[in-house]
Amino acid sequence: MQTRIQAPETAPATRIEAGGVRLEGVTKAFPGRRRGADEVIALQGVSLQAAPGETVAVVGPSGCGKTTLLEIACGLIAPDGGTVDAAPAALMAQRDLLLPWAGALDNAGLALRAAGASREEAREEARPLLRDFGLEGFERARPHELSGGMRQRVAFLRTLLSGRPVLCLDEPFGALDAITRHEMQAWLAGALAREPRTVLLVTHDVEEALVLADRVLVLSPRPGHVVATLEVGAPRPRRRTDPELVALRERALQELRA
Amino acid sequence: MATLTMISLLIVAGLIGAWELYTHVGGVDEFLLPAPSAVAEALVEDRGLLWENFVVTAGEIGLGIGVAVALALACAVALHFSADLRRALYPLLVGSQTIPIPIVAPLLVAWLGFGLAPKLAIVALVCFFPIVVPTIDALARVDADLRKLMRSFGASRWQTFRLVEAPAALPGLFTGAKLSVAFATFAAILAEQSGSENGLGHLVAQAIPQFETARAYAAVLILSAFAVALFGLLALAERRLAPWHRPGGVLAVGERRLPVDPHR
Ligand SMILES: Nc1ncnc2c1ncn2[C@@H]1O[C@H](COP(=O)(O)OP(=O)(O)OP(=O)(O)O)[C@@H](O)[C@H]1O
Ligand SMILES: [Mg+2]
């Protein structure tokens, strides 16, 4: 399907240093739920490289350790084995985690506040993006007054505004309807073309991975390890109907089914 | 809604009517149970005396809760930031609640004098615990994923506290403050009866041996009304300052889950 909107004029926050991500043979297990129970091995020897400015997508069945992988890349949890070498990374979690007392504008600016901006500065910087994301008029709306898709857009914006060189997006567009999802994908592709960032993108949607990423890693069911790495060479902006993408999609789905 | 108000008003009126009737036909001594009309009369006749003493007691309650809130807040934040402190002090907090106030109150009066100080100490001591516990709880209950998110944004421990944990704890603080209104009223009266020269508790203690039972009832009535008003005021402030927290509404932070099954 063709994307409907052009990437908007406004660029995301600047202050981005170049930075890549390099994970080598990362292993992570969680203790069993009860004493004596087997531990849950979430990741087993996963390697991942994203050069500065690259987008790497990770697809895999539910529970295979995708979220765990992102949290390791962000330095939020330590792996049991393997090495992690990553520039500062901002997380967009699978749950939106918006603050219930703050309006959309202040929620979007939270990462800016964490970086030391005043409330006013954060608002100034977030306001134009809120408009680009179809949230104009909802600046003061609290999360419970927003739809699921709107909440997800606010959460996405918040991550984008963090100004960190690496973005770790965990199912960023999962709650959106198909049309909005395609708009957001186009927006992200445009923003990254204008102002490259390193992105790790976790998604259930193979097409989304192929449209956005330079490389797609397919993970096995738990314990997660990489079963296939697909290089996506197609020129951007990409179309879903591109024969190369269609062929890669078949391969990815085959690997997922195996 | 209007009919519900009507019903509760009718019930109250019915109860007062029954009480009035009982004092006239029940043959009970008016020094034990004055009629509602006698209490109303005392309210009007002794208004100067009642007001004078009310101001004293209201001040003790208000200031006492203020002191308790300030101490509880400082303590909750300290315990929140230091796990060692939490392990060391939490048992002591619980212990502080087992102090038998009626026994300690006269000692405090003997120690601190007949003035405001012992009353503040007693009210604050009684109110501290019900405020500090929900506040610590609310601080601790902030979603761990939200803390992770803040860390990924490069937030310091203090920034996470200021931007996320402190606002999240506000409803807990209000819950504690509202609870403490009832305790504070009781504590202030107890403190006054343990030794004082004014206040509604002192007035009641004097009125009963003087057979001014109606005046004592009037004092109790005023005190109850004050407690209800203070509670209402706090509820109002809560709605202004923490409007996202409605009873039965959003309790934790970032509740709604996305439709993807996150498996945890
Ligand atoms: N903090 C934790 N404690 C215990 N087990 C955990 C923890 N975090 C994750 N797990 C387990 O590790 C495994 C991988 O979890 P993870 O959330 O990374 O999966 P996922 O690939 O993101 O799944 P989904 O696509 O459903 O979001 C799961 O079996 C999960 O139960
Ligand atoms: Mg996940």
Write the layout of secondary structure elements.
The complex is a heterodimer of chains A (258) and B (264).
Chain A (H helix, E strand, L loop, with lengths): L20 E10 L9 E11 L4 E5 L6 H8 L7 E6 L2 E4 L11 H5 L1 H5 L4 H14 L15 H13 L5 E5 L7 H17 L3 E5 L3 H7 L2 E5 L6 E6 L11 H15 L1
Helix pairs in contact in A: 7-8
Chain B lengths: L1 H24 L10 H10 L1 H35 L1 H14 L4 H12 L3 H25 L3 H9 L4 H37 L6 H8 L5 H29 L23
Adenosine-5'-triphosphate (ATP) sits at the interface of chains A and B.
Could you characterize the architecture of this molecule?
The complex is a heterodimer of chains A (258) and B (264). Chain A has 258 residues and is of the alpha/beta class. Chain A contains 8 helices and 9 strands. In chain A, helix 7 packs across helix 8. Chain B is mainly alpha-helical and 264 residues long. Chain B starts with a helix and ends in a 23-residue tail after the last helix. Chains A and B meet through strand 5, helix 3 and helix 5 of A and helix 7 and helix 8 of B. The complex binds adenosine-5'-triphosphate and magnesium ion. Adenosine-5'-triphosphate sits at the interface of chains A and B.
